[in-house]
């Protein structure tokens, strides 16, 4: 209303009075300046931009932290909101004529979730199967070597004249057969070891032991120190 009658188109007498009253009203009108912060840790305070303010559950101001807000004198309830954070509220007492009264709001940053350290330990069963695979492979190679050596001996001595004893031929075949079976068993254990390695479970890694003080007796007294877990 005062802005209307203070225009140049109004009569001079009314215009003069309205401009004087408008100046007095403007001087008496208090204002607030909303400043939002976020606390990280103990001493790290960071400014927050782009908040929305609701004053006395009626007046909503977007981007309330950019410019001073005109407000009536008295007690007011201000709620501040921002994305992905709970709203915070506080009461403020504003005096007549008070300009740019700073109202600080503080959010405390939510601590980031700590991802537990995980590991995939080698199961004991894998050690057993790998050991059996190595043992079976070694035994198979040994029997295969003996059997082949025996066949070569028979082939260079009695086989050309067809005078080899059947018992010697059977012995050479037995060595080779045992070697084949042993190598087959070694392959099965090797495959089992690979499967156990692939499907081994993931478990949470144990916490590292904390640093500790050491105190040990020595000749003539004691010696102390800090044992660091590096």
What value does the average pLDDT take? 80
Sketch the topology as an H/E string, one letter per element.
Answer: HHEEEEEEEEEHHEEE
Computed CA radius of gyration, to the nearest angstrom? 45 Å
Q: Can you tell me the overall shape?
A: rod-shaped
Record field, number of beta strands: 12
Going by helix content, strand content and strand pairing, the class is alpha+beta
Strand content: 25-35%
Explain the layout of strands and helices:
Elements (H helix, E strand, L loop, with lengths): L1 H4 L6 H17 L2 E10 L3 E5 L3 E4 L3 E3 L7 E2 L3 E9 L2 E10 L6 E8 L9 E2 L4 H33 L9 H33 L4 E2 L7 E7 L2 E7 L3
Parallel strand pairs: 1-8
Antiparallel strand pairs: 1-2, 1-5, 3-4, 3-6, 6-7, 9-10, 11-12
Put the structure in a nutshell:
The chain is α+β, with helices and mostly antiparallel strands. It has helices at residues 2-5, 12-28, 124-156, 166-198, and strands at residues 31-40, 44-48, 52-55, 59-61, 69-70, 74-82, 85-94, 101-108, 118-119, 203-204, 212-218, 221-227. The protein folds into two domains: 27-108, Immunoglobulin-like (Sandwich); 118-204.
């Amino acid at each position: 209303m005062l802005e209307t009658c203070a225009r140049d188109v109004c009569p001079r007498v009314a215009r003069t009075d309205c401009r004087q009253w408008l100046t007095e009203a403007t001087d008496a009108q208090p204002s607030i300046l909303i400043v939002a912060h976020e606390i990280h840790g103990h001493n790290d305070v960071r400014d927050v931009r782009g908040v929305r303010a609701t004053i006395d559950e009626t007046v909503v101001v977007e981007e309330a932290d950019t410019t001073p807000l005109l407000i009536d004198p008295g007690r007011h309830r201000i709620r501040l909101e921002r994305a992905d954070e709970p709203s915070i509220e506080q009461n403020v007492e504003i005096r007549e004529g008070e300009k740019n009264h700073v109202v600080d709001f503080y959010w405390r940053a939510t601590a980031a979730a700590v991802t537990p350290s995980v590991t995939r330990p080698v199961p004991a069963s894998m050690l057993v199967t790998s050991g059996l695979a190595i043992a079976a492979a070694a035994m198979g190679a040994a029997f295969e070597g003996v059997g082949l050596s025996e066949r070569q001996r028979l082939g260079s001595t009695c086989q050309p004249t067809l005078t080899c004893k059947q018992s010697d031929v059977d012995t050479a075949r037995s060595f080779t057969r045992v070697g084949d079976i042993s190598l087959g068993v070694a392959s099965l254990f090797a495959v089992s070891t690979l499967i156990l390695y692939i499907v081994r479970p993931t478990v949470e890694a144990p916490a590292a032991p904390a640093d500790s003080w050491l105190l040990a007796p020595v000749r003539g007294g004691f010696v102390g120190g800090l044992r660091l877990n590096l």
